[in-house]
Amino acid sequence: MSARTRSSRSGSWTRTAPDVIDLLLDSLVRPERHRRWPGAEAIPGIAPDDVADAPTLDELRRRIIAAVYDALVVIYNAPFGAGFLRVELEVSAEVRCAMREFAEVFGEWSDWHGSYRWQKLHVAATYIGFDWDGASHRAINDCQATCLFRRT
User: The organism sits in which domain of life (predicted)?
Assistant: First the structure.
Protein backbone atom coordinates (compact mmCIF):
# COMPACT_ATOMS: atom_id res chain seq x y z
CA MET A 1 0.00 0.00 0.00
CA SER A 2 1.27 3.43 -0.78
CA ALA A 3 -0.20 6.47 0.89
CA ARG A 4 -0.20 10.20 0.46
CA THR A 5 -0.91 12.63 3.24
CA ARG A 6 -4.18 14.41 2.61
CA SER A 7 -7.12 15.75 4.57
CA SER A 8 -7.33 16.34 8.30
CA ARG A 9 -4.37 16.65 10.62
CA SER A 10 -4.89 16.03 14.34
CA GLY A 11 -2.03 16.46 16.77
CA SER A 12 0.91 14.43 15.54
CA TRP A 13 -1.24 11.90 13.72
CA THR A 14 -2.25 12.43 10.13
CA ARG A 15 -5.14 10.94 8.29
CA THR A 16 -3.80 9.62 5.01
CA ALA A 17 -5.65 8.80 1.84
CA PRO A 18 -4.22 5.57 0.45
CA ASP A 19 -3.64 5.47 -3.28
CA VAL A 20 -4.02 1.71 -3.30
CA ILE A 21 -5.13 -0.81 -0.71
CA ASP A 22 -4.57 -4.42 -1.73
CA LEU A 23 -7.12 -6.64 -0.04
CA LEU A 24 -5.15 -9.74 0.91
CA LEU A 25 -7.66 -11.45 3.16
CA ASP A 26 -11.11 -10.67 4.55
CA SER A 27 -12.53 -13.60 6.45
CA LEU A 28 -14.01 -14.61 9.73
CA VAL A 29 -12.19 -17.51 11.38
CA ARG A 30 -13.89 -20.56 12.83
CA PRO A 31 -12.41 -21.48 16.23
CA GLU A 32 -11.32 -25.07 16.61
CA ARG A 33 -11.38 -25.33 20.40
CA HIS A 34 -14.50 -23.41 21.34
CA ARG A 35 -18.09 -23.90 20.23
CA ARG A 36 -19.52 -20.98 22.26
CA TRP A 37 -18.07 -17.69 23.56
CA PRO A 38 -20.86 -15.71 25.24
CA GLY A 39 -18.54 -13.26 27.02
CA ALA A 40 -16.43 -12.48 23.97
CA GLU A 41 -19.46 -12.40 21.66
CA ALA A 42 -20.74 -9.21 23.28
CA ILE A 43 -17.89 -7.01 21.97
CA PRO A 44 -17.52 -7.92 18.29
CA GLY A 45 -21.02 -9.38 17.93
CA ILE A 46 -19.70 -12.53 16.25
CA ALA A 47 -21.82 -15.56 17.14
CA PRO A 48 -21.10 -19.25 16.53
CA ASP A 49 -23.55 -19.29 13.60
CA ASP A 50 -21.57 -16.46 11.94
CA VAL A 51 -18.44 -18.61 11.71
CA ALA A 52 -20.02 -22.02 11.10
CA ASP A 53 -18.84 -22.09 7.46
CA ALA A 54 -15.71 -19.94 7.91
CA PRO A 55 -12.23 -21.41 7.47
CA THR A 56 -10.09 -22.32 10.48
CA LEU A 57 -6.81 -20.59 11.26
CA ASP A 58 -4.97 -23.69 10.01
CA GLU A 59 -6.77 -23.35 6.68
CA LEU A 60 -5.79 -19.65 6.43
CA ARG A 61 -2.23 -19.94 7.75
CA ARG A 62 -0.41 -20.02 4.38
CA ARG A 63 -2.29 -16.98 3.09
CA ILE A 64 -1.57 -15.04 6.28
CA ILE A 65 2.13 -15.92 6.20
CA ALA A 66 2.38 -14.86 2.55
CA ALA A 67 0.69 -11.54 3.38
CA VAL A 68 2.95 -10.65 6.31
CA TYR A 69 6.24 -12.11 5.06
CA ASP A 70 9.04 -9.56 5.55
CA ALA A 71 6.45 -6.79 6.04
CA LEU A 72 5.84 -4.11 8.61
CA VAL A 73 2.63 -5.24 10.30
CA VAL A 74 0.62 -2.59 12.15
CA ILE A 75 -2.04 -3.91 14.52
CA TYR A 76 -4.41 -1.89 16.65
CA ASN A 77 -4.01 -3.50 20.09
CA ALA A 78 -1.11 -5.69 18.98
CA PRO A 79 -0.63 -7.41 22.37
CA PHE A 80 -4.12 -8.86 21.98
CA GLY A 81 -4.27 -9.46 18.23
CA ALA A 82 -0.73 -10.76 17.83
CA GLY A 83 -1.42 -13.35 20.51
CA PHE A 84 -3.67 -15.17 18.06
CA LEU A 85 -1.09 -15.02 15.27
CA ARG A 86 2.22 -15.74 17.00
CA VAL A 87 3.39 -18.34 14.49
CA GLU A 88 2.23 -16.39 11.45
CA LEU A 89 3.85 -13.12 12.56
CA GLU A 90 7.29 -14.71 13.09
CA VAL A 91 8.05 -14.10 9.39
CA SER A 92 7.17 -10.39 9.47
CA ALA A 93 9.90 -7.76 9.51
CA GLU A 94 8.31 -5.85 12.39
CA VAL A 95 5.04 -5.66 14.34
CA ARG A 96 3.90 -2.29 15.65
CA CYS A 97 1.01 -1.43 17.94
CA ALA A 98 -0.99 1.53 16.64
CA MET A 99 -2.96 1.61 19.91
CA ARG A 100 0.16 2.30 21.98
CA GLU A 101 1.29 5.00 19.56
CA PHE A 102 -2.12 6.67 19.57
CA ALA A 103 -2.34 6.59 23.39
CA GLU A 104 0.54 9.06 23.62
CA VAL A 105 -1.01 11.33 20.98
CA PHE A 106 -4.41 11.29 22.71
CA GLY A 107 -2.63 12.15 25.94
CA GLU A 108 -4.88 10.73 28.66
CA TRP A 109 -2.45 9.87 31.46
CA SER A 110 -3.11 6.99 33.86
CA ASP A 111 -1.39 7.32 37.23
CA TRP A 112 -2.40 3.73 37.98
CA HIS A 113 -0.53 2.34 34.95
CA GLY A 114 2.17 5.00 34.86
CA SER A 115 1.60 5.49 31.13
CA TYR A 116 -0.90 6.89 28.68
CA ARG A 117 -4.28 5.18 28.68
CA TRP A 118 -5.00 3.02 25.65
CA GLN A 119 -7.97 4.13 23.59
CA LYS A 120 -10.35 2.00 21.56
CA LEU A 121 -9.99 2.02 17.79
CA HIS A 122 -13.31 3.85 17.52
CA VAL A 123 -11.87 6.72 19.61
CA ALA A 124 -8.76 6.94 17.42
CA ALA A 125 -10.81 6.83 14.22
CA THR A 126 -13.12 9.57 15.47
CA TYR A 127 -10.08 11.63 16.49
CA ILE A 128 -8.90 11.83 12.87
CA GLY A 129 -12.39 12.10 11.39
CA PHE A 130 -12.72 8.58 9.97
CA ASP A 131 -16.27 7.66 8.95
CA TRP A 132 -17.13 4.01 9.45
CA ASP A 133 -18.64 2.48 6.30
CA GLY A 134 -19.35 -0.77 8.06
CA ALA A 135 -19.45 -2.31 11.50
CA SER A 136 -16.42 -2.08 13.73
CA HIS A 137 -14.84 -5.33 14.91
CA ARG A 138 -14.91 -6.75 11.40
CA ALA A 139 -11.44 -7.25 9.96
CA ILE A 140 -11.92 -5.22 6.80
CA ASN A 141 -13.41 -2.18 8.56
CA ASP A 142 -10.93 -2.18 11.44
CA CYS A 143 -8.08 -2.56 8.95
CA GLN A 144 -9.31 0.37 6.84
CA ALA A 145 -9.48 2.58 9.93
CA THR A 146 -5.98 1.54 11.05
CA CYS A 147 -4.58 2.04 7.52
CA LEU A 148 -5.53 5.70 7.66
CA PHE A 149 -3.24 6.42 10.59
CA ARG A 150 0.28 7.55 10.02
CA ARG A 151 2.28 9.00 12.83
CA THR A 152 4.21 12.08 11.73
Answer: Bacteria
Fold exhibited by the domain 2-151: Nucleotidyltransferase; domain 5 (3.30.420)
* DSSP-derived secondary structure letter, 102: H
What confidence tens digit (pLDDT) does each residue in 15-47 have? 455 555 677 888 888 888 878 877 777 777 788
List beta partners, residue 85. Answer: none
What is the reported pTM? 0.75
In order of 67, 88, 151, the CA distances from 93 in angstroms are 12, 12, 19
Give the burial string for 98-119 (b: 16+ CB within 10 Å, else e). bbebbbebbeeeeeeeeebebb
Report yes or no: 145 and 5 within 8 Å, Cβ to Cβ: no
